[in-house]
Amino acid sequence: MPSPLLLLPDFALILIGHLICRHTALGRPVWDSVERLVYYLLFPVLLFNAIVQQPIQASHFAQIGGIGLAVSAVGIALAYALRRAPGVDPLLHASGAQTAFRFNSYVALAMAERLAGAPGLAWVALLVSLCVPVCNVAAVWPLARHGGQGFLGELARNPLIVSTVAGLVANLLGLRLPELATVTLTRIGAAALPLGLMAVGAGLRFGALREAPWLAAGFMAIRHAVLPLLAIALVVRAGLPAAQQAVIVAFCAMPTASSAYVLATRMGGHGGYVSGLVTVSTLLAMAGLPAALGLLAWMR
Questions:
Q1: Residue 89 burial (C-beta neighbours within 10 Å; 0-12, 13-18, 19+)
Q2: pLDDT digits over 34-73, tens only?
Q3: Angle at which helices 28-37 and 192-202 pack, to 10 degrees?
Q4: Backbone angles phi, psi at 2, to 5 degrees
Q5: Spatial contact of 110 and 128, defined as CB atoms under 8 Å apart
């Protein structure tokens, strides 16, 4: 299928989640519970299992991992820089900065398999294992500093950081799980993608963005313009194979993490503002992700 059509099944699940939440008895309280289930159990299991099962080649660390970390570092630096702009509300910035550089791993893993099959899943697993801890550390820091909370304690309790670091260590040590454990973890993790995508749709909101629309525009410009363009420039310059280029660019053009809302709310941030940013980012990615892949194909 052409690249835009590759995205339709995943965005269809987001739309289905939105419609179910708004127009059936399965309202917001149900999806709050689903989101916590995905965030604290299903998705950590998926990440750990994906990283453990896919051998990580040393050459991929320097190429794929290096580009992913470079793009993430630029996004973090630019998002933090917005704090120095005049009139910025510290709480809104601390809450929303993460949406400029975090990515929706649910969509990334689903997309990678469609773009490049099992190798694509392995490449995204590597990107996730390296970038999730970095991005989550950068997301927790402003909120912990603003709320006076323990930074290291928040990191140690973050399920995505714990699962990705554990998976990466197990992979590098060559550990392999028994078949029964692998099958069980695979079935648990398989529930994460559809439920996670539907939970994204259930949480779509706009209203709170009126509090600082220009700040939201800055975060979204970083997430959906600067980072994809930087990724395209880096993969073309590096001369990576076409499939790897597509997976990396798609990864860098992802909508922001839906779990950003959970993190902001749990750490005393402005949850409504972050929810609006997640909504806008998801909608922008529906057009921006195929556009980024199209630009990459044109530049080859």
A1: middle
A2: 888 888 898 888 878 877 876 666 666 778 889 999 999 9
A3: 140
A4: -60, 155
A5: no
